Amino acid sequence: MMMRAEGTERTVAVFAPLYPPAFMGGGPIRSIAALVAGAPEEVHAVVLTKDTDLGAKVPMEVVRNSWSRSDGADVYYASMRSPFDYWRALIALRRTKPALLHFNSFLNPQLTIFPLILWRLGFWGRARVLLSPRGEFGEGALQRRSAKKRIYMRFFRVLRMPKAVIWHSTAAHETSDLRRIWGDSSVVLERENDTLLAEVSSRPRSVDGPLRAVFLGRIVEHKGLHIALEALAHVAGSVRLDVYGSREDSTYGVRCDELVSQLPPHVSVEFHGPIRPDLVVDVLKEHELLLMPTAGENFGHVIAEALSASCAVAVTPFTPWTEDLSTGGGFVLDRDVASWTTFIDQFAAEPPAARMSHRIAAGAAYDRWRGRSRPPHLWTSAFERIEASE
Q1: Is residue 196 one of the residues assigned to a domain?
Q2: How many domains does the chain have?
Q3: What's the CA gap between 100 and 332, in Å, rounded?
Q4: Gene3D superfamilies, alphabetically (predicted)?
């Protein structure tokens, strides 16, 4: 049985492609968990998600195909491999009588597309829709599997969905993407992702010897590990790079292995595999520099984590962090090998005291970012927008 909190007036049904204890999908999982954890008192959040982690064949150790409590939330971990179990999960969610359906992907077949079609058919009653595409409309993201995406986008328009939903954007560039694709009249709520990180940054630890750099993210072309590895092949200074992340693309993984095999002796790279979210900040504390040659992020949770750990950040301009990093603690680089080679070479050549100053600046940048005033919770803003339109 689902344990509903007393006195709540509105239920928000959260469709989460992945949810804790899942962690292989990276930052979006942590953002959704933080959103649920910070739900306003007048909102009762219920979560529908899969019972498996990204790329896993074995279910997680959770209560499956029924409601359970997970970190203070009501969560339904459904077996998506069984049509019967999947349909039973949708029925269970409908019984909560949600006032708002919050989808956290545009393209997920089971946890967005089919439930949205059901919404158009009246399955969810008078519930309204909030849709967080989480970077899926960025130029780089649209280029991957573009044919399938464009077919569904046409279908989405045929169903007159673009103006029927409330879009959630996490940054100005994502808002621009949404309006470019769906029109200027689309309703967009722009609000940065939530986080469960500490209120203040940690003090940096002294690190002697060669530069200790880290890459932390999914090992796919979009994240750009190959750019960092190609750059390291040309640096003159000594560098140790630790790589944490899941290998979602085996072909790309082999490509990265080949690049590592070609590195000079003064550069070492070690792959550690995926890492649990509760260990991420501790790992980052042991490093001086996060390398993130990404093709684009709608938020970039690991950037916030690195800054909180007083780990300097090197990243491309395709994240919402450019302005924050420009004040210190970060470096914004063009997404080409030459730029990354020059930067890493210069950073590695600095004495430990200079590298420490970058880490101190990273912590200060985090404290400024964390200390900013925040807009109301996303769901509060969504309900306010709905009420204003009625």
Answers
A1: no
A2: 2
A3: 38
A4: Glycogen Phosphorylase B
